[in-house]
Each structure stands twice: as structure tokens, then as C-alpha cells.
Amino acid sequence: MDSLKVAVLGAGVVGSQVVRLLTEQKSELAQRVGAPLEVIGVAVRDPKRSRHGVPAELLTTDASSLVAKADIVVEVMGGIQPAKDLILQAIANGASVVTANKALLSREGSDLVLAAEKAGVDLYFEASVAGAIPLLRPIRESLAGDKVNRVMGIVNGTTNYILSKMETEHATYEDVLVQAQDLGYAEADPTADVAGHDAAAKAAILASLAFHTKVTIEDVYCEGITKVTDADIIAAEEMGFVVKLLAVAERMGDDAIVVRVHPTMVPKSHPLANVRDAFNAVFVEAESAGELMFFGRGAGGAPTASAVLGDVVAAARNRVTGGIGPGDSSYAELRKLDISHARTRYYLHIKVADRPGVLAKIAGVFADNDVSIQVLHQDGRGSDASLVIRTHKASDAALAATLSGISKLDVVDSIIGVMRVEGERGE
Amino acid sequence: MDSLKVAVLGAGVVGSQVVRLLTEQKSELAQRVGAPLEVIGVAVRDPKRSRHGVPAELLTTDASSLVAKADIVVEVMGGIQPAKDLILQAIANGASVVTANKALLSREGSDLVLAAEKAGVDLYFEASVAGAIPLLRPIRESLAGDKVNRVMGIVNGTTNYILSKMETEHATYEDVLVQAQDLGYAEADPTADVAGHDAAAKAAILASLAFHTKVTIEDVYCEGITKVTDADIIAAEEMGFVVKLLAVAERMGDDAIVVRVHPTMVPKSHPLANVRDAFNAVFVEAESAGELMFFGRGAGGAPTASAVLGDVVAAARNRVTGGIGPGDSSYAELRKLDISHARTRYYLHIKVADRPGVLAKIAGVFADNDVSIQVLHQDGRGSDASLVIRTHKASDAALAATLSGISKLDVVDSIIGVMRVEGERGE
After folding, report:
1. A268 annotated active-site
2. Nearest Cα to A411, choosing from A373, A360, A348?
3. Is the model's pLDDT at B425 over the cut of 80?
4. Do B114 and B10 lie in a common domain?
5. Of B179, B241, B315, B421, which has fewest CB within 10 angstroms of its CB?
6. B111: Cβ–Cβ under 8 A, 6 or more apart, which residues?
7. Which of A98, A124, A287, A288 to mutate to test the interface with B (most CBs of B within 10 A)?
């Protein structure tokens, strides 16, 4: 059979690994696909820079001409443009596309999906969420006969590394961030990670697939880890919890979803609590399948390239057999509710005056807003007196009202910690 | 588009749930597939028995006539015959087949795969290993561009439940087994589970897929949990380990594999150690992807039916788009070595005489057989004196020779515990 022509856009950490694997595993891949895969070129901006072993003769700066000749286009250049136009060009030419571009997918994913569907070509993007972990394919295909109710994931390795270190070393956020930067786990400008933007992009992609609904990053409530204190971590520890940055997408009733990213207390007995350091994991609750978890490395050149290669093989096989993989149409069109509709438990740490009647006043505010208290501890005396409260499930709106009410009480000095709690059973 | 005709063989716990889901999710499934799925009949042996809500008009005892009319055949009857002949009939007719039959697949899987490949139809069997957990599809498709080095799984819920209870309640194997039988977690005749046969069948299926090699249950070394004592569990606990029944399939050098099922000590920090009760999990080590884990419910009607439905949707989509899923050919043809070639660490608990020179003699036997000691504890005095030893990695053959040598020493009273250790890094 004729070989399939593969164009690679981008020769960074991932692109160079993709080229390496396509070359090294050539004969094995040909057996799996049913036809040889041939890398016809690698598009880069500056062909003079070192390319981690990509042969110089493959390099080109003319991405568009390269795309025009390809059967399969692998886009690992990142960014919105020119990535988007090149992908659309490839689709219009009848080529299949594999991309790892979460920024693009979380903003314009549904346009790309629609274009691919109309053109009858495959658009795969396993590597865009949780790197090497096979996650999107299982959700899209293995759970195709099931109904997903909830997806809850640790999808950003940098923040998980920072939170894990804060937990094990009882260090401050600032100290651990510097450590992480020294080790290369965090960028010099860590905003995209620590502010939750990266996790929010992945949450949008996951939610789109899991709920067959168009979800963009603008639909995702996003709160990073920059305000997590060592006091929060210690309080979690004392209650048998750990703090994780979770991306949560969940069904609300029959026709709506809420998608959110925020620091979260998770009980130590929950499978997500044991996911440490730079590892990623996604926990899925489906109607029939029950609880599932997918765990592995979320980033890195080789792991991400492994996911890209899996997609390339799938797209290539489809071309050989004449089929096309399942699309990701947004036929369900669920409504996207904002965070005020989310229902979770909350942890609150309140500094209070040490005098009789404080508890009654505070409990009154909870009751007025219909927020039920699950556990309450009074700690310290005198100027150190504080209350630690965990609630039953309540809406975000009800909690916001409760917080506002409490902060106005004269017996309350300050609210020193608030965090959502996930992963316990029941209401 | 014309509807696709689905025949279901078997109306037990799984079959009835499959029919329920196909009926309840009819319109959603039609959207995902691109054509409606119609259940044209359910083959049973005795149509008079209650069928968990399967409509009586669908029941038939003539499985062969039903198969002859189907586009997709779902085999959830179990056992070798008539399941095998019906599947081969379906394939010969050009129908796609979805089966959950691990007994059949672990014995004659490669015949079925070959027949499906020749006929150009899909043969899917996600539900045969680890129930609802999407596992075979990720290994087959997502890791298609990677190289799997090791698969290590908790694939039997009954034994995991028993071992978890022995651990948390410090109860004996016999007591927990009775409890598990009362709760329905273990069969009246628990042999298939506790002797490791069920896990061995799944190990064969997993190994075939992961290593593209024909592996049957006869190739799998199999040791159950019936000899695991509370002393083993306590010793593991003291060392920071837990005891799990693991199915392990691993690459040995370039051209061979070993596949084995046995009780194993796993460090508490390993992701598999936290998989408790009836849950299943499979840990995969791949060259590029690194460490992955898949976690979820291994059994039960609804979870298993979810996996079957995912396969039905994939097979149905392939019929609509004219494609065919990736096959599971055994092109790699790796050699299957027996257990004596496996290299693991070992835990040994030896009752010894309390007199000088004991340790030197025992250490001498280890050295003679080239087995290196990693950790050693001497416990107790007088008639209670014992040695607890954990070794570095050694071959099973070397350990067998060591055990034989030790048991012949006059200073050794008896060997009261031996177990393989997995999940630590390094040699």
C-alpha cells in the first residue's frame, strides 16, 4: 500500500519526539496501520535553531505548502494563529488532523470539530488534556453507551507539584513556587498554571466531550492556587483532607452543566487524593460504569508524543480502512450555568471574638441562608479564638450570601479560609 | 439511515442490562452512531425464566437463526460452547461481534481475532477485562504508537475484597471468605476467583493486546490467595506494604515476555496499593507514555454493560462509516518464558534457631545463589526467633534454589512466609 504522508507543524519538545517516534517505530507502526507512515516535512519558524535531532532536510518554513501535500497533519506548534488557519486548510484539503493545542481547542474547538465533520475527516486531540493519559478516547468511545454525570480532574502538573510540596514540606506557596521554577516544573512566568487558566482550558475540552456540548474557556469558572495558605493545608490535614486544584464538570439536572476550576479539599480516602507531584488524574462518574479514574503523566515531550502518536495511528488506520472515527458533535446542547448554581460542601475558617453567644450568631447566619453545618470545631481562646466549619452541600450563591452575612457580624474578626470540598459521598 | 440489527446472546445480569441501555438510550445512541440500533432478539436457554425486564417477545431459544439476521452480535452468555460457534457463525456472516467472554478469549481468542480479521469485521471485548474500565481500547489504540513494557493489574474484585478486609480487620482468610460469600462478593464455590484462574484469564487477554502476541491462559503462571496468612498481611503492614493479587505481564529483553498471577507485596506509596475492596485497576508502563493507571469497577451488571455498549457503538459506527477498528494481530510473536525467568524482589519470613552463626549460614545460601539481600530484620528470641528478609531483584529460579538451600539448614526451623514484591523502583 502507498505510504501516508505526515506533516508535522512545530519542532519543539513534543514535535521533535513525534518525529523521533515516527522514525524509530517505522516498521511497527506500518504493521499496526496497514501502510507505512512517511514524515514529509516539519514546519518551523526558524530553521537555523537546533531541533533536538530532527533531520535538517525535513525542516521548512513554508507550513502552508507542507500542509497541502499531507494526508495527516500533526499540529504541535501551539497558539491560536497560524495554527487555526493551517488546521482549517488541512481539513479543507481532506487531510486528517492531530493536535495537542489546548489553547486553540478551548476557544475555537467546536469550529474545528464542525469543519472536520463536514469534510469527513478525523480531528483528534488526545494530547491536549492530561498529556499521555488516554482519556479523551475512552470518554468519547468507551463510554459512548453510557451517561457521564461528572468529571473531576487534576489536570495541571505544576500546581499539583506545588500543592504536594506545600503539604509534605509545610512550606509556603511562595517558597515552593521558587523551588518549582528552579527545577523546571514551573515557568518563569507561572501565571497560566497557578492562576488556573491551563486547567480551565482542559476543563472546557473535557466538558465538551463528556457532555456533547459546546464549552469554551469563557464558560469555565476559574480560581487558581495563589491564595492557598499553609494554614489551609494544615487545616485540611487535620480534618483528613488534602488540597488539590480540581477541574470539575458536572451535570445539573437534565439539561445543564457547570464547569469550574478551583482549589478543593479532597478526603484522603478519595483516589484523587493520592495523585501527587506532577502526575495528573481524571475521575469520571458515569451512570452505568460507576466511578473510573485515569492516572498518568500530564506533560513532558515523550508522554505527550505518545498520545499524539496514538492519534496518528488511529487517523492513519481510518484512512487505510476507509472509515472515520466518532466525531465530537455538540448535539446535546446542555445549558452552561455559572458557578452560583454549583452545589458543593465548604470549609470555612473564621477568626472570632472569645465571648458567649458567638456560635449562636454565626449559626444563625448559616440557617438564614439554608446552609447546613456538618462539622464544627472551636479552636483557641482569647485573641486566637477561631471556628472551623465544614458544611453540607449548598449552592455557591447560598455560601456567598452566608459569607457576606458572617463578615458583617461584630463577633467576627475575619474569615481566614474558605475552600470548596469535593469527593465525599451523600448530601 | 437503516437501523442496525443487534442480537444479544444471553439474558443474565449483563445481557439484561445491555438490553435495558439499548432501549433507554435509543435516541442518544442513534445520534452517536449515525443510525438507530434495533435489538432484534435475545437468545436464552430457558425462555420461561424471569429475565430482569427483558421483554418476552424478544426471547428466543434459536440462537443460530437470530445470529443469521444480525449486523452486530453481542455475546454475553459465557462459557466455551456454544458461544464460540455462534461467534464464528456471526463473523462468517459478516456481522461484527462484541463479547465479554474471558474464558473463551483467554483460550481461543487468537482464532476468533484471526477469523474476524479475515472476514473484515470488528471483534471487540472491552468488558472481558476489568468490567467497566476502558482499558483494552486505550492499550490497543491510544498506545498504538508507544511500546508497552509492563502491565500490572488488580483484575479480580473478589480477591481484592478479601485481601482488603484481611488488611483492615486483621481477620483470617477463611473468616473473610465466609463474609464475602454472605455479601455476594464471592461465589459459593470461590475457586475460580481465589485460585487465581479468573485473573489468569484476564492476564492472558491483556498480555495478548499489550504485546501483540498470542497468549493463552496456559501460558500464565497462576498462584491464588488461599495460602496468604494474616502473618503475611501483618508483616507487609510493618514494612509499609500491602498484599494484592497481581496479574503481571512484562517484556523480558527484546523478544520475550513472562505472564504471571500471584499474591504480591506492593509498597503503600504505589498507586495500586490504594485500590481497595471490589475495585480493579491496571497499571501500565510504556516507553514514552511512562506510568499510567486505569481504575474502576471490575464487575457488576451495569458497569460491564457500559463497556459492552461502548463496543457496540464503536462497531456500529464502523458499519455506518464503512471502516473497521484496529485488529489485535499477534504479529510481534514474542516468546513466552515460564515463571523461572521472572525477576522480582522477594519477602521471606524464616523461623530460625536462636544461636550464634545462624545469620551467617543463611546469608551464605543467598550469596551462593546470587540473591542479594536488601533489608533484614531479626525478630523474637528463643523458640520465637525469626528472620524477615527482603531481597533485591532475582530470578524465580534463583529464589527457588535459595529456598531449597535454606530449608535444608539445621538452624532453620521452617519457612513461614514467601511472597513476591513489586512496585519499588530500581534493581
Report:
1. no
2. A360
3. no
4. yes
5. B179
6. none
7. A288
Pairing mode of beta strands A412-421, A343-352: antiparallel
Same domain? A21 vs A46: yes
Q: Report the percent of chain B where pLDDT is more than 90.
A: 74
Choosing from B84, B102, B165, B202, the catalytic residue is: B202
**With contacts defined as CB-CB under 8 Å, which chain B residues touch A326?**
32, 313-314, 317
- Which range is most confident: A12-21, A231-240, A242-251, A319-328? A242-251
Q: Kindly state the cell numbers that stand for A284.
A: 469520571
Residues A151 and A14 in one domain: no
Residue B358 is part of a domain; what is its CATH number? 3.30.70.260
Percent of chain A with pLDDT over 90: 74
Q: Do B314 and A25 touch (CB under 8 A)?
A: no
HSE at residue B274, side-chain half, CA atoms within 13 A, is 16
Return the amino acid letter for B232.
D
Q: Are B152 and B270 contained in the same domain?
A: yes
Tens-place pLDDT, residues A219-273: 999 999 999 999 999 999 999 999 999 999 999 998 999 999 999 999 998 999 9
Residue found under cell 537546533 = A50
Nearest chain A residue to B318, by CA: A323
Global pTM? 0.91
pLDDT band at B208 (very low <50, low <70, confident <90, very high): very high
Longest Cα–Cα distance in chain A: 85
Q: Are residues B138 and A138, on separate chains, in Cβ contact within 8 Å?
A: yes
**Of B73, B100, B105, B101, which Cα lies nearest the Cα of B89?**
B73
